[in-house]
Amino acid sequence: RGNWGNQIEFVLTSVGYAVGLGNVWRFPYLCYRNGGGAFMFPYFIMLVFCGIPLFFMELSFGQFASQGCLGVWRVSPMFKGVGYGMMVVSTYIGIYYNVVICIAFYYFFVSMTRVLPWTYCSNTWNTPDCVGVLDGNVSSRAALNLTHLLNSTQKRTSPSEEYWRRYVLNLSDDIGNLGEVRLPLLGCLGVSWVVVFLCLIKGVKSSGKVVYFTATFPYVVLTILFVRGITLEGAITGIMYYLTPQWDKILNAKVWGDAASQIFYSLGCAWGGLITMASYNKFHNNCYRDSIIISITNCATSVYAGFVIF
């Protein structure tokens, strides 16, 4: 079985595997819902008593056996069903995350225009409910629709939302109507799968080199968004809400449940990926040190992303 080129490649790969949408969007959302800074208290307790031990166990398990999430259970054949479960979960995750990447590619391509297509409400896919802040006829439309708004019979929508629902996805009106295949999205999905193939074409030899970019670039983007966000009006108010704890919510069991689920979700425990990546380590590698570094980096990224979002 091959090995990582060096230990930095494994750490960066594990960080890139752990850090994702769960850190950038799900963690700030849970903080907002569960009392701001008060949510960090159960979050870090779950990290110390659940996240790091389980993370360390999976790394040491895969490193000791030098097997993936299926072969590693030869140590106890009674639990081989756990390995198959990990494989199924990882398959589902790989499929739906590539759809997310596909959407990112689509917006990347269509944004290469002088005027973004989701800026105004004057497009063929827009409805009378659409109201954009940059539209010149907002005042007149608001006056015409005042009666409807007062009677709550009309829901105001943004041009970006209608672009997403009515043009990009072209949602059908009923679950029984499958609609059509969106060829632009299909092409972007093909591009995302090709990118994944090229990253993994030589196993850890190629993926270990790719992570030098894929694991560090999100931090560059987060920093750019943070600098931009901190200059906007009301930024300090949002950050103060993020940091101010609402201690009464700590007594709510749901807050602790959200903290535990967030730790499992963001670290990627029990999905099989950690065991597989650790199986390419050298036998005497210090996986305890790696588990501490990766876990703390992952959670620090969540806290940093909270400042960006709030």
From TrEMBL:
Protein name: Transporter
Transmembrane segments: 40-61, 82-109, 216-243, 263-280, 292-309
Keyword Translocase belongs to the record: no
Topological type in the membrane: Multi-pass membrane protein
Similarity annotation: Belongs to the sodium:neurotransmitter symporter (SNF) (TC 2.A.22) family.
SUPFAM superfamilies assigned to the protein according to its UniProt record, in alphabetical order: SNF-like
Compartments where located: Membrane
Protein keywords: Disulfide bond, Membrane, Metal-binding, Sodium, Symport, Transmembrane, Transmembrane helix, Transport
